[in-house]
Amino acid sequence: MLAILVPLSGYLIVDHYGKNVVPIPRYYIPERVDTIVKNGKVSYDTVFHTIRDFHMTNQLGQKVSLKDLNDKVLVVDFFFTSCPSICPTLTKNLRLLQSAYVKNDTLLQILSFSVDPVRDSVDKLRKYAYDYKINPDNWWLLTGDKKEIYDLARHDFFVSVTEGDGGPDDFVHTEKIVLIDKNRNIRGYYNGLDTNDIKKLASDVATLYLEKERHRPGFLKFLKGLFSTTN
What we know:
Elements: H1 2-17, E1 30-38, E2 41-48, E3 55-57, E4 63-65, E5 73-79, H2 86-100, E6 108-114, H3 122-131, E7 139-142, H4 146-155, E8 176-180, E9 186-191, H5 195-209, H6 219-227
């Protein structure tokens, strides 16, 4: 029931009340303010940070990039397969989130970047995914160039306040989960070890997906996608 009620209730709330009443996840990391002149009137528009494209390899050995995920809300975390502390709990909580959207897996994409990509080979990621019953349809465990992953963590997702060169002695370890909207803006940070934060994240995913915009799906189309895999 949770798999159906979370996105459905999110749709009904957003559709009925509109974004002026329903709490919409705010934007993070403003980068500049543009001046707009139209019909002699001056207005200002804040431009927020946008996640850049990247190229990684997932647990199936597939080469993937951000461009493969158009029109999906993204949930991002950083982990490593041999982590004995926070990662097992973090992964289990994300598994609960994935289960909540199992009937509509085209809505959400979870991306887990390995912070130990040298040791976390495709085979290790695949075994880790099997052990935690991770569905690869909408959850990728990613490995790739360590410097690129660490640069993404620090300067795109902003989950670490430390600086480093991505070398052998550099290390990023965080319980933060990042919510990214369909326009690739950061819309939330959550404690991946806190089940209350995971519940809020589940609700915010639905809200962002159904956030009123020019190409927002209609209610019947949403329901069709929601129940298409129930049989």
